[in-house]
Amino acid sequence: MNIPLPIAGAPRSPGAGAGRVSGRRARPGPAVERIADLLGRTAQGDAAAFAALYDVLVPDIWLAALAVCHDATTARKATEQVFVELWRAAPLLAAQPDCPVSRLLRLTHRVLRLHAEPPDSE
């Protein structure tokens, strides 16, 4: 796993300067463009694009699922469910005008909430 290192002179607070350049929205980076392309192709039923999208997204979705579910078995089921839902919802997700990553995050959040470990009740 590659961990991005801080760049000298970069904003330190989360969101400071992110997504805006001179009052205009910044152009999406190559990773976002790649995800948007793969999502669009997945929406058309391209299984190879879905496999590539899986390879790009699964590490982050797995870590999120593990953090929410607290055990590997439930996290595995939740991760699988995210990708089943992604395959089913790809045409709708690809047609939405907002950022593809935010769409995928909303879908992931919705599925993980269903698998979340309930808080301990004492």
What does this 3D model show about the protein?
This is RNA polymerase sigma-70 factor, ECF subfamily. GO terms for molecular function: DNA-binding transcription factor activity. The structure is a single chain. This protein is mainly alpha-helical. It has one domain (28-115): Rna Polymerase Sigma Factor, Chain: A (Orthogonal Bundle), CATH 1.10.1740.10. Helix content is 63%, strand content 3%. The protein has helices spanning 30-43, 47-69, 72-95, 100-115; strands at residues 20-21, 24-25. It has a two-stranded antiparallel sheet. The longest helix has 24 residues, at 72-95.
Number of DSSP strand runs: 2
The H/E string reads: EEHHHH
Looking at the structure, the CATH topology is Rna Polymerase Sigma Factor, Chain: A
What CATH architecture would you give? Orthogonal Bundle
Strand order of the largest sheet: 1-2
The rounded distance between the terminal residues' Cα atoms is 38 Å
Helical segment count: 4
Note the main sheet. 2 strands, antiparallel
CATH class: Mainly Alpha
Q: Low-confidence parts, pLDDT < 50 over ≥5 residues?
A: 1-22
Radius of gyration: 17 Å
Overall pLDDT confidence? 78
Helical amount: 55-70%
At the fourth level of CATH, the homologous superfamily is: RNA polymerase sigma factor, region 2, helix turn helix motif
Q: Which class do the helix and strand fractions yield?
A: mainly alpha
Backbone shape = elongated
GO molecular function: DNA-binding transcription factor activity
GO biological process, one term: DNA-templated transcription initiation
Protein name: RNA polymerase sigma-70 factor, ECF subfamily
